[in-house]
């Protein structure tokens, strides 16, 4: 195992702990204000410093992990879920279904992803749930295209033909050969997708369309810190660092799995 | 003084010695054939001769080309030698052309780089060269890109660019592999003419027949060393080294049906096998030896095919008036035949003759536009897939590319367990071990994935899967075309044993006339989707009636002339 994969796993383990049991890493209250301690630079008492209301940024970043990761994972799940439905429909369905689905995906693909998410939020109103769905929806067409081509690739492969010759029914062929072989690439896609979704969800929060302050969410914290970016760098630096770390760690892990799959 | 003198040439990659102690010399107008199987070091030798062994290769020994030591030559000197004095036709000649450039440009490159010929003259020379290598309509072809040319024309273009400056030495690495035999014949004619005009030629091939047609002397390589060399007639006619003998014996030609191509397994493994292992060669040689030693014990069977005259036999597959059209092209045109129990029907033809489409129709992977196939008397192509399913286990298939016919996630054990249990079990048990032993593989192979097996072993696993369901017929689509000749011989012998023991019928599709003659009882010759000739193998080969069949047979190079025991055919 390479050092980068080990590092990525360590970061993911840390983030998972922060998401599941934030109080273990940061026992304080992320919303507790202490106006006297406002704008403290990083120190032993507040290792990431404090914000304009004297809230401890370290505590807020740790407590925000759950929300950010959940949005990322949920959005990926929504995106992949939709993509699986469309991808399998297009890959397995009769030619006209494939044609229709593919054209629909192409139309969706024509919108820049974030624009599509914004459009959705404009219609259904801002909030954590809508922004999650929005991110999921806008990533779905990309995944669907990959799944469709993978399904078609496996479905027309010589080993599927060999299964026909052995007398296997279509259900057996799909369950035993197509789905497992497609699932392998799906797993990689999902891991790579989580990082991307975290960035997107944070972007929406930053724009004020996802989680809203004072909730402890990385994108929202970035947004709050933006006003003070020139004087108090730590307000934006640490939430930003965690966004980068989580996205980088999941991407590295995804790549490592992909590489392993190619070698075996 | 010879044109080329190589002494004690060795090539190493890191700790692996790929070529060891090769010496040879070549005169103008002479053709040296280098034969050997994959991994024997013949291509690496050729590349080392032109200084292209690669950055990681460590080349030692001396290569003297007309007074110039290639080993000490500067890159600049080498470049000028390569274009001007030494032509090199690489193994991947079909992909050696830049897909975005017209072939005429490719051919004029050496003229532009090595001469001061003005552009107009160069253009004229390119057309001359194309005409010379037998490309029809040179002025049209020169402006076309490689994807607009057929394999044979592309190969000719590559040769044209290699001979543009009339090099004194031409090295051709597998120049006709992957080409149909009539096309191959044209290329060999061209090389022969160049040789007769005084070009020294090094011809590298795994195909003994190709080499025997052109070479005046032959060098046999195995596991990086020269095991035998000498005049062609002597090496191929009276081989001294056991490896050469085995190689020649493995070539299927006109010997009677049922003759074994490999020595019986009881014989001790020849010593060169052990040296192959100690060379740590690419694995092919080692794997092949392992295969030989675990060959099934069938030496007791008589060499003659039994009960040829057992009266009328049951028809297992019958095809009547099959036609299949793809767009404007009629891929299969009114094809009818019957296949009887225990017999082999060979289908032979060049690429595009429709033989693979016939295989797909017989396997009901495709529907005929007209006509039908019946299997064991039951409707087959006219039935629905659901109706066919009960009959599916009775008809198996093996393919040219065995590896891609296996689910990449499955181990060998799982593949076979699945086939044995009709898809109900995935656990490998005793039956799988028995099946592996039946096809001459170690049962321990069950735990491995096909990707990690050699080509011959993969094909054996495919055969094991095909016989697992106890079929009556196996459709074999070019099953040995991508295998080395000795591995091919083992697989053909295995198929023969299985036919004898299990009463199998084969529909055997191949482009290789030697193979079809060796395995078939009856033969169909196909051209442009039609059957142009059919009959018993003996009758068709002895007295071909159709013009195309005659042309096809005439174009196939043979080594029969050199084969002392059976004499010329």
Strand-helix topology:
The complex is a heterodimer of chains A (264) and B (569).
Chain A: H1 3-20, H2 22-25, H3 57-92, H4 95-110, H5 113-124, H6 128-155, H7 158-165, H8 170-206, H9 218-226, H10 234-263
Chain B: E1 4-13, E2 16-26, E3 31-35, H1 42-49, E4 57-65, E5 68-69, H2 75-84, E6 86-89, H3 103-114, H4 119-132, H5 138-142, H6 151-162, E7 169-173, H7 181-196, E8 200-205, H8 208-214, E9 217-222, E10 225-231, H9 232-237, H10 242-249, H11 271-279, H12 284-293, E11 315-326, E12 329-340, E13 344-348, H13 355-362, E14 370-375, E15 378-379, H14 385-389, E16 395-398, H15 412-420, H16 430-438, H17 455-468, E17 473-477, H18 485-502, E18 505-510, H19 513-519, E19 522-527, E20 530-536, H20 537-542, H21 547-555
Parallel strand pairs in B: 3-8, 3-9, 6-7, 7-8, 13-18, 13-19, 16-17, 17-18
Antiparallel strand pairs in B: 1-2, 1-4, 4-5, 9-10, 11-12, 11-14, 14-15, 19-20
Helix pairs in contact in B: 3-4, 3-6, 4-6, 7-21, 15-16, 15-17, 17-18
Main features:
heterodimer, A: 264 residues, MetI-like fold, B: 569 residues, alpha/beta, Rossmann fold, 2 domains, 23% strand, globular, disordered C terminus
3D structure, described in words:
The complex is a heterodimer of chains A (264) and B (569). Chain A contains ten helices and no strands. Chain A has helices spanning 3-20, 22-25, 57-92, 95-110, 113-124, 128-155, 158-165, 170-206, 218-226, 234-263. In chain A, helix 1 (3-20) crosses helix 3 and helix 9 (218-226) packs antiparallel against helix 10 (234-263). Chain A is elongated and about 75 Å long. Chain B is of the alpha/beta class and 569 residues long. Chain B has two domains: 4-247, Rossmann fold; 315-409 and 468-562, P-loop containing nucleotide triphosphate hydrolases (Rossmann fold). Chain B is 36% helix and 23% strand. In chain B, the strands form four sheets. A six-stranded mixed beta sheet of chain B has the order 6-7-8-3-9-10, with helices on both faces. In chain B, helix 4 crosses helix 6, helix 7 packs across helix 21 (547-555) and helix 17 (455-468) packs parallel to helix 18 (485-502). The longest helix of chain B is centred in the last third of the chain and has 18 residues, at 485-502. The radius of gyration of chain B is 25 Å and the shape is globular. The two termini of chain B are 39 Å apart. The model of chain B is unreliable at 265-310 and 562-569 (pLDDT under 50). At the A-B interface, helix 7 and helix 8 of A face helix 14 and strand 16 of B.
């Amino acid at each position: 195992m390479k050092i980068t994969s080990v590092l990525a796993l360590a970061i993911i383990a840390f983030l998972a702990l922060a998401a599941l049991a934030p109080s273990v890493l940061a026992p304080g209250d992320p919303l507790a204000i202490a106006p006297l301690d406002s704008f403290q630079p990083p120190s032993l008492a507040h290792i990431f410093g404090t914000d304009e209301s004297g809230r401890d940024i370290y505590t807020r970043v740790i407590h925000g992990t759950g929300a950010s990761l959940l949005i990322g994972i949920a959005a990926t799940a929504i995106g992949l879920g939709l993509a699986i439905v469309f991808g399998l429909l297009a890959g397995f369905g009769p030619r006209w279904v494939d044609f229709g689905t593919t054209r629909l995906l192409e139309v969706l693909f024509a919108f820049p992803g974030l624009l599509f998410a914004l459009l959705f939020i404009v219609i259904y109103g801002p909030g954590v749930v809508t922004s999650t769905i929005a991110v999921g929806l806008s990533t779905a067409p990309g995944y669907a295209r990959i799944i469709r081509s993978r399904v078609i690739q496996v479905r027309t492969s010589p080993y599927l033909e060999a299964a026909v010759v052995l007398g296997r029914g279509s259900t057996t062929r799909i369950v035993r050969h197509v789905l497992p072989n497609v699932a392998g690439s799906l797993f990689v896609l999902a891991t790579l997708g989580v990082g991307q979704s975290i960035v997107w969800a944070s972007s929406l929060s930053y724009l004020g369309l996802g989680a809203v302050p004072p909730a402890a969410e990385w994108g929202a914290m970035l947004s709050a810190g933006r006003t003070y970016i020139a004087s108090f760098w730590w307000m934006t630096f640490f939430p930003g660092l965690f966004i980068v770390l989580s996205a980088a760690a999941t991407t590295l892990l995804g790549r490592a799995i992909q590489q392993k799959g190619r070698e075996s | 003084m010879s044109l080329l003198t190589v002494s004690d040439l060795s090539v190493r990659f890191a700790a692996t010695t790929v070529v060891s102690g090769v010496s040879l010399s070549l005169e103008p107008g002479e053709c040296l054939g280098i034969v050997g199987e994959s991994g024997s070091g013949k291509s690496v030798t050729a590349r080392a001769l032109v200084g292209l062994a690669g950055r990681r290769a460590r080349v030692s020994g001396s290569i003297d080309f007309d007074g110039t030591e290639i080993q000490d030559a500067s890159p600049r000197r080498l470049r000028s030698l390569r274009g001007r004095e030494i032509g090199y036709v690489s193994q991947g000649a079909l992909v050696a052309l830049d897909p975005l450039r017209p072939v005429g440009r490719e051919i004029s490159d050496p003229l532009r780089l090595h001469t001061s010929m003005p552009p107009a003259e160069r253009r004229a020379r390119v057309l001359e060269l194309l005409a010379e290598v037998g490309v029809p309509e040179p002025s049209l072809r020169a402006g076309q890109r490689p994807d607009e040319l057929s394999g044979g024309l592309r190969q000719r273009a590559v040769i044209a660019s290699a001979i543009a400056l009339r090099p004194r030495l031409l090295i051709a690495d597998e120049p006709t592999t992957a080409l149909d035999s009539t096309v191959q014949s044209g290329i060999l004619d061209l090389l022969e003419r160049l040789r007769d005009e005084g070009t020294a030629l090094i011809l590298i091939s795994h195909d003994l027949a190709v080499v025997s047609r052109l070479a005046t002397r032959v060098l046999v390589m195995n596991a990086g060393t020269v095991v035998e060399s000498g005049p062609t007639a002597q090496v191929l006619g009276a081989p001294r080294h056991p490896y050469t003998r085995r190689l020649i014996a493995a070539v299927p030609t006109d010997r009677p049906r049922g003759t074994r191509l490999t020595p019986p397994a009881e014989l001790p493994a020849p010593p060169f096998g052990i040296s192959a292992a100690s060379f740590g060669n690419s694995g092919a040689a080692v794997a092949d030896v392992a295969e030989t030693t675990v060959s099934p014990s069938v030496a007791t069977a008589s060499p003659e095919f039994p009960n040829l005259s057992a009266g009328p036999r049951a028809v297992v597959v019958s095809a009547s008036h099959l036609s299949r059209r793809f767009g404007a092209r009629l891929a299969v045109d009114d094809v009818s035949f019957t296949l009887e129990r225990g017999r082999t029907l060979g289908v032979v033809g060049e690429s595009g003759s429709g033989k693979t489409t016939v295989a797909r129709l017989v396997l009901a992977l495709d529907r005929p536009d007209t006509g039908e196939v019946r299997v064991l008397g039951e409707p087959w192509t006219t039935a629905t897939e659901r109706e066919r399913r009960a009959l599916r286990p009775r008809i198996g298939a093996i393919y040219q590319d065995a590896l891609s016919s296996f689910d990449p996630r499955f181990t060998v054990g799982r593949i076979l367990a699945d086939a044995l249990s009709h898809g109900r079990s995935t656990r490998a048990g005793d039956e799988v071990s028995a099946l592996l032993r039946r096809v001459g593989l170690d049962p321990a192979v069950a735990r491995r994935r096909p990707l990690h097996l050699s080509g011959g072993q993969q094909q054996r696993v495919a055969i094991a899967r095909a016989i697992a369901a106890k079929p009556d017929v196996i459709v074999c689509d070019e099953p040995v075309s991508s295998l080395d000749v000795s591995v091919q011989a083992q697989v053909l012998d295995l198929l023969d044993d299985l036919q004898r023991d299990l009463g199998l019928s084969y529909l055997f599709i191949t482009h290789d006339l030697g193979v079809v003659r060796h395995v078939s009882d009856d033969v169909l010759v196909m051209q442009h989707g039609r059957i142009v000739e059919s009959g018993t193998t003996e009758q068709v080969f002895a007295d071909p009636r159709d013009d195309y069949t005659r042309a096809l047979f005439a174009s196939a190079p043979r080594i029969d002339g050199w084969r002392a025991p059976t004499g010329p055919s």
